[in-house]
Every structure is written in structure tokens, then in C-alpha cells.
């Protein structure tokens, strides 16, 4: 019984640790994405530009899909 409790405790600690790491990574990414240009070095600035470019490509792709669906089915 004690072994089961210990294993359960270890699994819960592991899950908590993983969750904290995921949240930290999300925070770091959002901090980098919304940081001002003066606060970043060249690599971080390039990463920010790349993220922005990829977000715009996704937006254009989604909008074009909706336009195609509209033209095919609702015309």
C-alpha cells in the first residue's frame, strides 16, 4: 500500500512539474512575442518576425478556406 501511495505521489509530482514547465514555456514565448524591439537581441527579433509571419500565413489560409467554402456551397 505504501509503495502504491509513493508511486502515485511521484506521478503527481511529475505531472505538476511537467505542467509548470509547459506554462513557463508558454509564458516565455508570449513574453518574447510581445516584447518591444529594444528588449530583444537579433535572434529573438528574428524569431518574433517568424512567429508573426507564420501567424499571418495561418490567417490567410483560414480566410481563403472560408471563401472557397462560401463560393462552393452558398452561391
UniProtKB/TrEMBL annotation:
Indicate what this protein is called per its UniProt record. Answer: Uncharacterized protein
Amino acid at each position: 500500500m505504501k509503495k502504491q501511495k509513493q508511486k502515485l505521489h511521484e506521478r503527481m509530482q511529475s505531472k505538476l512539474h511537467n505542467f509548470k514547465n509547459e506554462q513557463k514555456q508558454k509564458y516565455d514565448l508570449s513574453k518574447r512575442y510581445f516584447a518591444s524591439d529594444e528588449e530583444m537581441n537579433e535572434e529573438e527579433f528574428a524569431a518574433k518576425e517568424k512567429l508573426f509571419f507564420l501567424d499571418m500565413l495561418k490567417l490567410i489560409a483560414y480566410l481563403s478556406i472560408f471563401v472557397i467554402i462560401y463560393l462552393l456551397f452558398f452561391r
